[in-house]
Amino acid sequence: MAELYIPRAHSNSWYEHLATLQAGYYYPWNSEIGERNGEQAFLELIEEYKGQAVNVLEVGCGHGELALSIADRYGHVTAYDRIPSYIELANKSKDDTGAGNVEFLCYDAQNPELHQTTLPARTDSVDLIICRRGPLHWIEDAARVCRDGAWIVALNPMEEPIPAWSSKLPHLLHFENSGRHTGTGSIHQSVENRLHQAGLTLHSGWSFDVPETFGSTHELYRMITWGLPPRKIPSYEDIRYKLDAIFDRYGEKDGIVLRHCRFLWRAQIHKSK
Ligand SMILES: C[S@@+](CC[C@H](N)C(=O)[O-])C[C@H]1O[C@@H](n2cnc3c(N)ncnc32)[C@H](O)[C@@H]1O
């Protein structure tokens, strides 16, 4: 039997496939995430750079939720993503909110043929680059688009331990195949490497590792099957008995507990005159 092709999570083809399964980029499960998990710290950090003269560039904006939620505190926000349906959704939300200072672009910053990364902004035009849970390739072109003294603030998923119960499930549903699994190794190291290659240095980095609790087998099923081709995987009913057994053996008081890990970091652009 031919082996089933599963795109690597967070590859271009994975996002293209995900866009056919759900409208916009979001986690489709309900869970309880512990406090101080990095997401709020990221929002607070970008607030430190607010100002009506600040020109923001958001990388990999998904369906535009972040750009629209911060727009009134900044001069102008340009946000881009390579998935057309995400940008369509972003523009619809923009029409609803009337945010006149946000521009959404459907744009791929990477040209695989030329092995080149080009951010959609003019040289010396950006004061703040933000990226929430997005890729890292854009770092290569960050210094060009930024003004002297500009900041980069980013939040990246950090590799989480593979839960012991993962191997109790059919191979396709192993944790490593879920979109939740980053498979990136040390994100801290990857960020440092990318910055170094671009002639930049990390100013600060913070790691967050808190519990995330899945209270039902159904929500756990949603997580492990996220981004997988629905017609090729066992249905919830088919594997419910396995999920029940996992809850019986590995569940804590409120359900199955995973780690929710994030790396928050910032870097400053210093341009030599
Ligand atoms: C993990 S999602 C995060 C979306 C959003 N920032 C959020 O917090 O919900 C990463 C996004 O980066 C986009 N992306 C990845 N590589 C890209 C590229 N080369 N050019 C533009 N967008 C890209 C993907 O399409 C995806 O929407």
Question: Could you please describe the fold and organization of this structure?
Answer:
By secondary structure, the protein is α/β, with parallel strands linked by helices. It has a domain at 12-158 and 185-209 and 261-268: Vaccinia Virus protein VP39 (Rossmann fold), CATH 3.40.50. 29% of the residues lie in helices and 26% in strands. It is built from 8 helices and 10 strands. It has helices at 12-21, 39-47, 65-70, 84-97, 139-145, 187-197, 217-224, 236-250; strands at residues 32-33, 51-58, 74-81, 102-106, 110-111, 116-117, 126-132, 146-157, 202-214, 256-268. It has an 8-stranded mixed beta sheet. It has a two-stranded antiparallel sheet with strand order 5-6. A hairpin with a 4-residue loop joins strand 5 (110-111) and strand 6 (116-117). The radius of gyration is 20 Å and the shape is globular. The model has no long low-confidence stretch (mean pLDDT 95). The structure holds S-adenosylmethionine. The site of S-adenosylmethionine (SAM) has 18 residues, from strand 3.
Give the topology, please:
Blueprint: H1 12-21, E1 32-33, H2 39-47, E2 51-58, H3 65-70, E3 74-81, H4 84-97, E4 102-106, E5 110-111, E6 116-117, E7 126-132, H5 139-145, E8 146-157, H6 187-197, E9 202-214, H7 217-224, H8 236-250, E10 256-268
Helix pairs in contact: 7-8
Bound molecules: S-adenosylmethionine.
